[in-house]
Specification:
This protein is of the alpha/beta class. It is built from four helices and five strands; from the N terminus they run H-E-E-E-E-E-H-H-H. It is about 30% helix and about 25% strand. Strands 1, 2, 3, 4 and 5 form a five-stranded mixed sheet that branches. The longest helix has 18 residues. The relative contact order is 0.17.
Length: about 140
């Protein structure tokens, strides 16, 4: 699904700076990147997943228009296939890197693949700090 709004607004929603449209709480999230299943709250802004909270499950629920209780049901966001092949993009590695940076998806695949959720959390923290300073 394409995000209808501009990316800056989606980023603000991910950072909790603007109200999300929907939160799905008490879900069992299947993380297709790590293969783990864990309790999570998923925040949606303008039809796109803005943030997944798995530490403090009640955090941010006061900044949401609608809260849905999943009652422990499983949630698989977008049935995302977590692996990729650069050559399938039909881009050179340099052009692919430019596209990835433009989409704010510059987390190094191999680091996350080998270190899993811990590496992803570190990278996302760095991204949040960068974005807060540059929005």
């Amino acid at each position: 699904m394409r995000v209808k709004n501009n990316r800056k607004e989606l980023i603000k929603a991910a950072l909790g700076l603007v109200e999300c449209d929907l939160a799905i709480k008490n879900a069992q999230l299947l993380n297709v990147f790590t293969g783990e299943v864990y309790p999570a709250t998923v925040f949606v802004y303008d039809g796109a997943i803005a943030h997944v909270e798995y530490r403090n499950l009640e955090e941010g629920l006061d900044k949401v228009k609608v809260v849905v209780d999943a009652e422990g049901k499983y949630l698989i966001p977008g049935l995302i296939d977590a692996h990729m092949h650069i050559e399938s993009s039909m881009l050179t590695p340099r052009n692919f890197a430019q596209v990835v940076q433009q989409q704010l998806l510059w987390i190094h695949m191999k680091l996350v693949m080998f270190m899993g959720l811990k590496a992803l959390n570190i990278c996302m923290t760095l991204v949040k700090v960068y974005l807060k300073d540059n929005l």
